[in-house]
Design goal:
Layout lengths: L42 E4 L6 E9 L1 H6 L5 E8 L2 E8 L4 E6 L3 E4 L2 E2 L12 E4 L8 H18 L2 E3 L4 H9 L5 E4 L4 H13 L3 E3 L13 E4 L4 H12 L14
Parallel strand pairs: 8-9, 8-10
Antiparallel strand pairs: 1-2, 2-3, 3-4, 4-5, 5-6, 6-7, 10-12, 11-12
Helix pairs in contact: 2-5, 3-4
Length: 251
């Protein structure tokens, strides 16, 4: 979704490699009352007076899919405390509900789930995040196309599903073997990062370091695909803002 609850910069307009000194997500002073309407944009609510602990909700992740009647869309909710620690993803149009909490594992519809055991690219189905539409869209899209071209030669199948929450949930339950997104918006990723990590997937940045809220990219893979996926990312991002040497940024 394109905006936050307060008139801060939109996802398409914020500078691609700068970090604001203010909190990463704007929030209202208190959670809405029971009678208040549910916000239809990504929103953060503080769970305490500590700005490092807050809830993030994206009421519709995969907005374009939802508008067009494509069922790959859902609701994403995360609790963040120096990084995401709890995540819930609901995909109502396909009847799936996922949740995970740090140290407690990951679940779908009450059943524990785990990432795939796939270990070679010819066996792997891999999703690539949506094309960009903001100021860095043309450059981002060139890199995404290069990633897809490399994957098309080596992976079993390549998909673009149109929802980061769906991508990460599907990696968590083994539907997908990996997902690569050239970005790291909190409202898109926080819940899915907890889910995929607790399911045993490797969730990392471009350089292979553990994914954090300041990561350049969001990469989640079955453990056996980590090195192969990183090789492709390295080959296609060198010399771009998403390269491992570019340093972290808030998106």
């Amino acid at each position: 979704m394109p905006t936050t609850a307060t008139p801060t910069a939109t996802a398409s307009s914020r500078p691609p490699r700068s970090r604001s000194p203010s909190p990463r997500c704007a929030w209202t002073p208190t959670p809405p009352s029971r009678t208040a309407p549910v916000p239809l944009w990504p929103t953060c609510w503080p769970s305490t007076r500590d700005a490092d602990t807050h809830w993030i909700i994206d009421p519709v992740d995969g907005t374009a899919n939802f508008i067009r009647g494509l069922p790959l869309c859902g609701i994403s909710l995360a609790l963040v405390h120096h990084g995401p620690v709890l995540g819930v993803i609901r995909l109502p149009l396909i009847g799936r509900r996922y949740w995970a909490a740090q140290g407690l594992g990951a679940f779908r519809d009450g059943q524990r789930i785990s990432a795939a055991g796939t270990s070679t690219l010819p066996e792997a189905m891999i999703a690539v995040g949506d094309y960009g539409t903001g100021p860095d869209g043309p450059e981002r899209n060139r890199v995404a196309l290069a990633i897809q071209a490399h994957l098309a030669e080596k992976a079993q199948r390549v998909r673009m599903l149109g929802s980061a929450a769906v991508d990460l949930a599907f990696v968590a339950d083994g539907t997908l073997d990996a997902t690569i997104t050239l970005g790291n918006h909190d409202w898109d990723m926080a819940a899915g990062v907890v889910l995929a990590r607790e399911a045993g997937a490797v969730v990392m940045d471009t350089d292979g370091s553990p994914h954090t809220p300041d990561a350049l990219t969001t990469i989640a893979t079955a453990p056996g695909l980590r090195d192969a996926v990183l090789d492709i990312v390295a080959a296609t991002t060198t010399g771009t803002p998403w390269a491992a040497t570019a340093g972290s940024r808030a998106c």
